[in-house]
Design brief:
By secondary structure, the chain is α/β, with parallel strands linked by helices. Helices cover 29% and strands 18% of the residues.
């Protein structure tokens, strides 16, 4: 899906919502890897999990709204995304105070 196919470009969530609809997925079931501030806002506004891609040599944009920051595409694998999705799907059924994602030494409180 291209932003040209949507009425509103990023930071509006239109492109991500259209992509989710086209693959018959709920937005909360989608994972986005974004490299720009407006893209992170669009992904989060769409209700999607967002990895911000910030390579070490790149100009640092504000990606503080992203769920995670990666500096290399090797930092996240398909298996990681599937595990993360399954954990989030399970966590939605727990009380808010118990929602924490842990992978080894990595731990993050979810919303």
């Amino acid at each position: 899906v291209s932003g040209a196919e949507c009425e509103h470009g990023k930071p509006a969530p239109d492109v991500y919502l259209k992509a989710a609809k086209e693959i018959s997925m709920k937005p909360e079931e989608c994972v986005v890897i974004e490299d720009a501030y407006n893209g992170v806002i669009a992904a989060k506004t769409a209700g999607m999990y967002c990895h911000a891609y910030v390579p070490p040599q790149a100009y640092r944009q504000d990606v503080s709204l992203a769920d995670d920051v990666i500096t290399s595409y090797r930092d996240v694998t398909v298996e990681d995304i599937i595990d993360e999705y399954n954990q989030r799907r399970f966590l939605r059924h727990l009380p808010v105070e118990l929602r924490t994602i842990s992978w080894g030494s990595y731990s993050r409180r979810t919303v």
